[in-house]
Amino acid sequence: MIAETGHFALILALGIAIIQMVLPLYGSRRDDPQLMAVAVPAAQAQFLLVALAFVALMTAYVTSDFSILNVYENSSSAKPLLYKISGVWGNHEGSMVLWVLILALFGAGVATYGRNLPRSLQANVLSVQGAIGVAFLLFIITTSNPFVRLDPAPFEGQGFNPVLQDPALAIHPPFLYAGYVGFSMAFSFAIAALIDGRIDAAWARWVRPWTLAAWMCLTIGIALGSWWAYYELGWGGFWFWDPVENASFMPWLSGTALLHSALVMEKRDALKIWTILLAIITFSLSLVGTFLVRSGVLTSVHAFAVDPARGVFILGIMAVFIGGALALFAWRAPLLRQGGIFAPISREGALVFNNLILVTACAAVFVGTLYPLALESVSNEKISVGPPFFNYTFVPLVLPLLLAVPLGPFLAWKRGDLYAVAQRLMVAAVIALAAIVIVFAIQGRGPWLAPLGIGLGVWLIAGAASELAYRAKLFQASAAETWRRFIHLPRSSFGTALAHAGVGLSVIGIVATTAWRTEDITAMKPGETTEIAGYRLVFDGVSERAGPNYDEQLASFHVFRGDSEITELHPTKRQFTIEGSATTEAAIYNAWGGDLYAVLGDPLENGAYSVRVYFNPLVRLIWIGAVVMFLGGGLSLFDRRLRVGAPKRAAAAQGRLADAK
Amino acid sequence: MLWIIFLCLTAAVLLALLRPLFGGGGEEPGRDAANAQVYRDQLKEIDSDRDRGLIGEAEAKAARLEIERRLLATMDADQNVAAARSGSPVWMAVAVAVALPLIVLGFYLTYGSPQLPDQPLLVRLQQPVDEQNVAELIARVEAGLKRKPNDGQGWAVIAPVYISVRRFDQGLEAYRKAIRLLGPRPDLLAGYGEALVFANDGAVDPQAREILERAVADDPTLVKPRILLAYSDEQAGNYQRAVARWRELKSLVKNDERWAPLVERRIASAEAKLDGSSPPKGPVRQSAGGPNAGDVEAAQNMSPDARKQMIETMVGRLAQRLEQNGDDLDGWLKLVRSYAVLDRKDDARTALAKAKAQFSDQPAALQRLNSLASELGISS
C-alpha cells in the first residue's frame, strides 16, 4: 500500500507538473491573474507529492521490501541502516527521484517565499520549473521507474555496491544534486526574463542567492566526492579527470562565473544578457552532467546504442531545454535593455575577465570529456584523454585567473585604478615571494614549478587578507578604529575573502601533494619494517574480523617517528558476501605536514603481503580549502546588507555619467 | 483502501489547484508596483544598516541615489497595467478536473501494480506459513522455474516445500535438478536423502542411506541426516551403531532445544534395547500428516504387534480415503507399496488394479504404477 501510494503520488506529481507548466504561462501571456495564481499551489502540491513518493521509497528500503525491484536490486537486509537510507539515491532510479525532489523543493520555495515577486515573473519561473519537472518525471516514470514491483518477492536483495557504502558517499549525491538543481532556478529565472522580454528589479536579488546556494552545495559535493575517491579507491589520488568528476566540475566552473556575473548585475545592473546566457549554459552543463553519468554512455557508446531508452530520453530533454533556451535567447535577448557602463579597468572589468577565463577553462574540460565519446561514436576508436590533456589546457588557463583574483575586490566599481591596487597588494606580493624563496630553500627535490605554485596559493590567501586589512584601515587608523571597522565590515566582504582564501588553500594542497608525494610499494612479512617520509612502519600481521555485512582482513602497523610511537594504522580489505565483491579501506594518519596513507594489498607467497604506503604532503588543504569556500559562500548568503551597487568613491562621477547619458 | 487513498490525494490536489480559479483574485500588485516595492525595501534596508553603523554615511548616500534613480525609472515606465482579464475559468477548471485524473489514472494503470501489497521483510518472516500461502508460493515459483528451468537455486528452494506438502515426486525431482545444477552440496544431499525417506513412508532404504552418509561425510554438522541414519540403524536392529550415532549427535546438538531432548530419549531407548530391557516411555507427538519423525519414533517405541496394528490402521484409513476420492496417484502408489510391505499381496494387486482403472487415461500415471508393480514383484 505504501509502495503503490508512492507510485501514484509520483504520477500525480507529473499531472500537477503538466498543469504547472501550461496554465501559469498561458495566464501570463493573457495577463490573467487567476491562471497565473495556479502556479503557487501547483508548485507546493508537486513538492508534497514527490516528497510522499520519496518517503514511500525510503520506507521500502528501510523495511527491506523486496517486492520492489529497485530495492531488490540495490539493497539487502543485512545492510546498516545508514546505507539502507543512502541506498535510495545510490542507484539510478532513486537518484533521479531525489533530483526531482530537490527541484520540486526549490519550486515550492519560489512559490511560498516569492510573494513579493511580480506576479507574471513568478508565474513564468514556476512554469519553466514545471516544464523541467514534467521532463524528468516523465523520464522517471517511463524509463527509470523505481516503483516497479517484483512478484513473487525474493527474500534477499542483491545488495549495494560496497564501494558506495561509505559515509561521505552517502551524503555526496544530495549535495551534488542540490547544486545541479539549484542552477535550474537561475535557468528558470533567465527563461522567464526572456519570455517577458524584461528583467525585473527582483531578478538579480533572487538569482544570486540561489546561485550562491547551489554553488556552495556543488562545492561541498565535489569535495566530498574527491575526498571519498582519495581514501576509498586506495591510490591516494584526489582527482582523476574522470568523466564523472568532470561532469560535476563543468557546472561548477560556469556556476562560479555565473555567481560573479550575477554580482555585477545585481550591484551595477550591467552584464544582463551575458548573465542570462551564463545561467542557461550552467544549467545546460548540469543536464550534460546528469546525462553523462546517467545514460550509460560513459561505459561504452555502444552499450548506450544497445539499450538507448534512457540515454535517448535524456538526450531529448537536453535538446529541448538547451536548444529551446538558446533559441529563445537568440530571439528575445535583443529586447533586453542594456545596463550600466564601465571602464575596462574596474571591478566589472575584473569580473568579465574572471568570466571569460572560467568559461574558457570550462570549454577545455568540456572538450576533454566529450571528445573521446564523439570520436568513439564516429570512428569506433576508443581513446582516453587522461590527466595530461587537462594539465596542459586547464591549468595554464586558470593560472592568470588565480593571479588576478586578489586584484578584483580592490578595484572600484565603474572605473578602477590598477596602480593604486598594486600598491595595496604590495604586502601580499612580498609574502608570496618570501614563501617561494623559503620553499625553494627547504625543498631540494621536486619540480621547479612547485614553489611557484605554493607562492600562488600564498598570494591568494595573503591577497584576501589584505583586502580585509585595507577595508579595516589596518595600520592606517588607530587599533580601536580598525577593530570597529573590521567587525562592521559587511559579511559579504568576509565571504569574498574567505572564498578566495579557500581557493588559495586548495591550490597549496594540490601543488604540494602533486609535486612531493612519496610512495613505497613493498612486500612485507609480519615483523618487517618500511620507512617513508621520516616515518617508520612496523607490520604486525593480518587478522580476520567480521563486520555487519562483510568480513575483513585487518592489518596492523605500528608507526614510529624517531623513537616514539605515534599511532597504529589498520588498513583493511573487506569482502561483501551478498554483493560478491571486495573493497580496500585505506588507513590514514593525518598530521599537519600531510597524510600517511597505508593500503593492504593481496597476500603473497610465504606469508608476506603486498603493502602500499604513501605520504601525501598537505593533502588535507585541498578539502579544507573547499570547506572554507563553502563557509565564505554561507557568509555572503546571509549578508542582509542591501544588494545594490554602491560606487562609494564616485558619487560625483556618477552624477556626471548620468548627465552624459 | 488503496483506491480511497488515491481518490483523496487526487481530490485534495484538484481542490488546491482549482481554488485560485474561483477565488476573487485578491489585490494583485502590478508589475511596476512590485518593482517599486523592491526598491523601497532596499531603501529601508540602507537606512537601517546606516543606523546600525553597518555602512558609512557616504556609502549610504551613494546607494540611496542609485536606488532612487532606478525607482524613478520604474515610475516613468508607461502605466499600461491592463485591467486584469478573467478568461473563462469555468471551462478551464472543468478541463483540468477532467484531464488530470484521466492522465494520472492512465499512467498509473500502465505502470502501477495496485494488486500487490507491501511486503516488508520482517513482516513476511513473521507470517505463519499456512497451506493456502504455500500453494500460492509454489505456484509462483513454478511459474518462475518454467521461464528459467536452469535456475538451480530456484529448484533448491522449492524442493523442501514440495516435501512439506507431501508432493514427494515433485520434491525428489526438484532435488535431483538442484543437485545437477548446483553440484552435490551437502545440504542438498541431506534434503534429498530426507525426501527419499519421507517418500518411502519413513523407511530408510539403501539408496537414501548412501546419500545421507555422503551428506554427513561432506558436512559433519548436519543434524537431520544423522538422526535419520541413527533411526535406520535402529530399524535394522543395529543398536550398537545406533547408540554410537546418537552419542555423536548429542555432542552436536547439546545447545539446541529442538533436538537435544529427542536425542536424549533415543539414547536411553537404544541403550535399553541393547541391554534387552524395556524402553522408557517418552511423550508421543501427534501428527495430522503421514508418518514423520515423531510417528516413526512412536512406532519404534511399540511392541511389534502394536506397531503392526498401527500401520494396519493407517493403511486402512488410506484405503478408505481412496475409495471415496480416487484421484490421488501418490495415495494409490503408497497404498500398493504398503500392502506389499505388509505382505498382503492380494490386497496389493486389487489396489493396483483399481488404481490403473482410475488412471486409465493417463499414460504417465500408468507407467509409474507398472514400474512400482514390477519393483514389488506383483502384477494385477
Indicate the topology.
The complex is a heterodimer of chains A (661) and B (380).
Chain A: H1 2-30, H2 33-37, H3 39-62, H4 69-74, H5 81-86, H6 92-113, H7 119-143, H8 167-196, H9 201-232, H10 243-268, H11 272-294, H12 301-306, H13 309-332, H14 347-379, H15 387-404, H16 407-410, H17 418-424, H18 426-442, H19 449-471, H20 479-488, H21 491-516, E1 518-524, E2 529-532, E3 535-546, E4 551-561, E5 564-569, E6 572-576, E7 581-585, E8 587-591, E9 594-603, E10 609-617, H22 620-637, H23 651-660
Antiparallel strand pairs in A: 1-10, 2-3, 3-4, 4-5, 4-6, 6-7, 8-9, 9-10
Chain B: H1 2-22, H2 31-51, H3 57-76, H4 89-111, H5 121-126, H6 131-147, H7 152-164, H8 168-182, H9 186-199, H10 206-218, H11 224-235, H12 239-252, H13 260-275, H14 293-301, H15 304-324, H16 329-341, H17 345-358, H18 363-376
Helix pairs in contact in B: 1-4, 2-3, 6-7, 7-8, 7-9, 8-9, 9-10, 10-11, 11-12, 12-13, 15-16, 16-17, 16-18
Domain Cytochrome c-type biogenesis protein H TPR (chain B): 122-257
Subcellular location (chain B): Cell envelope
InterPro entries (chain B): C-type_cytochrome_biogenesis (IPR051263), Cyt_c_biogenesis_CcmI (IPR017560), TPR-like_helical_dom_sf (IPR011990), TPR_CcmH_CycH (IPR056413)
